[in-house]
Amino acid sequence: xxxxxxxxxxxxxxGLLPFAxxxxxxxxxxPAPAPVPVDNFEGEVPFASxxxxxxxxxxxxxxxxxTLELAARDDAPQGDKVLSGTYEISGYGGFTHxxxxxxxxxxxxxxxxxxxWWDGRNNGKxxxxxxxxxGANGEASxxxxxxxTDDFTGWKQLxxxxxxxxxxxxxxxxxxxxxxxxxxxxxxxxxTLPVGVKDRFAMDGxxxxxxxxxxxxxxxxxxxxxxxxxxxxxxAVKVTVATTGSAPIxxxxxxAYETAGGTGESGKDYTPVKGELTFPAGTASGASRTVTVGxxxxxxGENAETVPxxxxxxxxxxxxxxxxVVIDAHGLPYLDAKAPVKKRVADLLSRMSLAEKAGQxxxxxxxxxxxxxxxxxxxxxxxxxxxGSTPTPNTAEGWxxxxxxxxxxxxxxxxxxxxxYGVDAVHGHNNLTGATxxxxxxxxxxxxxxxxxxxxxxxTAAEVRATGIPWDFAPCLCVARxxxxxxxxESFGExxxxxxxxxxxxxxxxxxASGKDLKRNDKVxxxxxHFVGDGGTEFGSSTTGSYTIDQGVTKxxxxxxxxxxxxPYQDAVDRGVGTFMPSYSSLDILGDSEGPVKMHANAAMxxxxxxxxxxxxxxxxxxxxxxDQIPGDYASDVRTSINAGLDMIMVPYAYKDFHxxxxxxxxxxxxxxxxxxxxxxxxxxxxxxxxxxxxxxADTGGASAIGSAEHRAVxxxxxxxxxxxxxxxxxxxxxxxxxxxxxxxSNADDIGNQTGGWTITWQGSSGKITDGTxxxxxxxxxxxSDSVTYSKDASAPxxxxxxxxxxxxxxxxxxxxxxxxxxxxxxxxxxxxxAVDTVCGAMKCAVLVVSGRPQLIGDQLGDIDALVASWLxxxxxxxxADVLYGKRAFTGQLPVTWPKSEAQLPINVGDASxxxxxxxxxGLTTLTKVPEGGRATLxxxxxxxxxxxxxxxxxxxxxxxxxxxxxxxxKVGEGITAAVAKPFADADHLLLTxxxxxxVAKLTEAYA
Length: 1008
Description:
Residues 354-685 form the Glycoside hydrolase family 3 N-terminal domain. The radius of gyration is 31 Å and the shape is globular. Strands 1, 3, 4, 6, 9 and 12 form a 6-stranded antiparallel β-sheet that branches. A 6-stranded antiparallel β-sheet has the order 2-5-11-7-8-10, with no helix packed on it.
């Protein structure tokens, strides 16, 4: 130990001498045990990722995770090194040490508490410290939390008794949890660092200290915090005594109970109870007693009434809050399930206070609740899980129990208005491990099959609703006009007509346009996003962090706005979509002299166009913290967004501030009560349609189908139809089972890369992050494992193989994190390029590009025999193998233009100058007979197409145009010129708009 560290320890020892002497004098035969080291930070514990043993960081987004290093310091309190780091957190972030799950859990029950050295910065900020207790491992355990305030300078040893920790009910009220800090199965600890400050930290010498104090180890808990009960029935409150370490209690524990306070009237609404429970010394940990509270029936309709049960505990730690019995609201018109929704809404609205209405307009992130009781205290209308915000363990049961726990809290409000819980399930239930993950929207658009979009929505809805979630922030109806955008893959394509054709997904999610199916246990409320123009933002216009294009400015004429960006949203309204979400981006309509206007502040578009002109009668939800980007102070942000037509505001961490500010704005007359009533009416309408008042809790009847073979078959078909064959010289594809196939490339055997962003976490990640089949695994099943050789970097010998398949492309990203110029480009990595060169230089080869947008491959295209745009196919790599091996035909078509160079961007169908690598709509086929003949055949097809158009025979018209397309593609081959590309792409747009005769005419022009 260095000398300075010795001096610190000596000073500490001197300060403790009186206590040490007293301890020795009073109990020389029972000395305090020696400290038990947990972390010395000398390098004995690695930096790792869960579930591996080690220290790792985490955060709300990629900028929120702190940096970590083991830094040598002369003043290290223990040893030579300390754990040091920097942070600047906007959402949430911190670090964790998880112990190895393959080894026995740690037993801390003999110690009094945990202590560590902290290098104080005196910033006055709180740091949360959490313990991981019980469960299967560090990522599937209870969290117990406390905090300390950094209000000092320099090294200080902080001691935290285990009795200071409280259970985090907001985080994981799920299976196998007993809400007792047992300490016999510990899996690690975590620190959550302060938000809103740029700073550094240092920590050293984590250890257990002291001897467990039996008198402080016992605690009393109840099996719930809220007990809803129908009027006239009784509630049973289960009271349990438990101990740290699960040992029997050494001293008697008494629990005096009494019904007192609340809104219920004693003797009229309930029979008062008062008494005492006794748990004698020697009582086993986990022993329970029951207190029964009876309620009384009367004939009048009433609001819900609360009956708190006050618990006074002697000899143990009392529950964090007193439980309360809630007598259910009854006999009021809004509770009549047979009444028209409009009548129910009007009745409920007439009873609500302004504060209750403001609560309905507030949406918080579930992990940001400072206390579970805040749901009732602020009358919150909604909670959400941001990307990667999941229960532990991340299972269907875990989700359902977590959300039911939140819904239970809402039952403690006057009118028991249920929460509406929302999640970004943008390609399947993508936050849930083991769910069926669909191709991202760009792949669905490539399928050109509205039935695929519908089926994907149907499976997504069923899996989402089975976990207790009734609301999905999907689909994205943006029209992606520049593939440098990090959200390109969230779009169905660059053509508004293509996006409109895929909006069958809304019916897959919601069912009938009337909303009559929303009560079903396999349907969810859908969200059309992001209104309007997010796909058209100009490169370099973003002012968000290091983003280059996401959340930027869309500059369009009014005609362009109507024709391109607005077009898909009217169809969504007509299909009955329940909610809309505005875009982060700004809209600058050229010629109106207003300049860029943030969409969250754009009353002309939200109130004027969406609600008034289009007739949207659902509600508008803001995006994540998006009102904070509106110019002005917070009060201005709130009133501007609400007055612009937003009905519910996603304020993940600022729900208290938003609630208070909205009330102030209404009371000051800056937001009208009429606007508030309109917003709340819209929200309540959807809650009634969803049947949440009758069934607020999860219906898990469909949970067994999550990730089922039936659902995966739908995703497999979607993956197969999304594959676009761009080149196939010499008929390399389909592969034959008799061939020896050499597989290489970074994305051949990586489920995380092929599912992309928004998978399990917000940004997604490489590796085995969920259940599914990689492309390589699918190929081995389709072609036979003996016939497939795999070498990721193509370093294995290439001799003796008939054909190579190189699977290359991108690693996961989401939103502006993936913008080109923000650490990303459209070029293949050096390793992928090398793999292509090696394999394609040794044998005939097919290259599959697994990516969220086109990649620039022109410099290698001449060496590639077959090229496939695989997009992000989801968890079912079998679908990719199906077309590679000819079980299904290649039928996909490009949903976006494939450029030759970045200098061409943006490049889109309809551009005056259009000379891409592959045009919009391009897609070769296999296993399909291409029509013979040339101009004569095209002339006949043109006549037939014109007839189909006149008679409204859409299916026939599409089939005719498709035949003409295939004929032209065969003639063109690899000779795609600007003269060919422009009419070819225009033809696909005409096809999607039902102009079949003109589509064939354009194809004839391309043929010429």
